[in-house]
Amino acid sequence: MKQPRAAATTEQADTPVVGAADGHAVVRTEQPVTSLAQALRRPRYEVLPLVGTAEQVTEHVPLDLPVTVTASPRRGLEPTIALAETLAELGYDAVPHLAARLLRDEGHLSEVLQRLDAAGVSDVFVVSGDSPHPTGTFPDSLTLLAAIVRLRPPGTGGLPRLGVTGYPEGHPLVADAELTRALLAKQPVAAYVVSQMCFDPTAVSGWLGRVRPQGMALPLYVGVAGVVERRKLLRIAGRIGIGPSTRFLSKHRYALLRALRPGYRPDRFLRGLATEPAQPSLGIAGLHVYTLGDVAATEKWRCRALARLAEDHGRG
User: Fold this and answer.
1) Three-point CA angle 269, 185, 114, nearest 5°
2) CA-CA distance, 82 to 87, in Å (whole number)?
């Protein structure tokens, strides 16, 4: 396996620090992202727990970029934890997805947390998971969060940094009001939110405009697809969260086809989002990039985008 790419020497975005929720929509971050260039310097990359992924990451991804590892109901949780351990050993800030429906019970959860402790992993992303039925005693992310807190009470030094999911475009099976209630219930122990993949920047800002006044004070990492071939994205879109059912794809079919011809690049989305990071009240902490199995293409695009932004800045 090749040695990981050295960390970039460009300025990094500050990491948000968040405490318990206090019911106010004042986002608690050290410094929110204030420009597109800053967001692109240190995005989070989401990768799939497949054979060869570790090699792709070490060959193409700098060590200073956090790498999150998704969980698959078909493969179970073990490949996710194993890849997170490998990436952490290589020096990456690895963030495994803990899918509630893939855990058997609190004993299984305790074993997983101990493995992550031993690997030096201190950040986990808590999701319900795409399994239609839970493997064990955790039906959703809220019950899993409660179990993590029972095993690792706040103040004991053993509670990992916890991330949760936000839904700017809603969920086909859950009402928006219920999604907001669930997010606010998770807020006291969560440190940040990652939004589900979205193609419409106004959906992100509009969602933040609705949930911030209701008390959602967590910083947001905006979920965006990386560089991907059109058919591949349409094929796996439902599995990775932009719509667990075909209803989403039917609703957005024509917008997707326009956006994906001949292949998808996030430039248009990020240009539309570019004015949003400058608004600290929105609490955008950075980007969460779904690489969709093509780490190399996405990292190549990111480097080129940063170079273009630097050139534009030089001309200005």
Assistant:
1) 90
2) 9
- Quick check: 81 and 112 in contact, CB under 8 A? yes
Q: pLDDT digit of tens for each residue in the chain (316 aa)? A: 667 777 654 333 333 322 333 333 555 554 567 788 899 999 999 999 999 999 999 999 999 999 999 999 999 999 999 999 999 999 999 999 999 999 999 999 999 999 999 999 999 999 999 888 999 999 999 999 999 999 998 878 788 899 999 999 888 788 999 999 999 999 999 999 999 988 888 889 999 999 999 999 999 999 999 998 877 776 666 554 454 333 444 455 555 555 555 678 899 889 888 776 656 678 899 999 999 889 999 999 999 999 998 887 777 5
Q: What are phi and psi of 126, to 5 degrees?
A: -95, 120
| Beta-ladder partners of 220 | 193, 284
CA angle 164, 167, 171 (to 5 degrees): 120
**In which residue are the tokens 């509009």 written?**
206
Amino acid letter for position 82: A
Size (the chain), residues: 316
Q: What contacts 316, CB < 8 A, 6 or more positions away?
A: none
C-beta of residue 191 within 8 angstroms of C-beta of residue 124: no
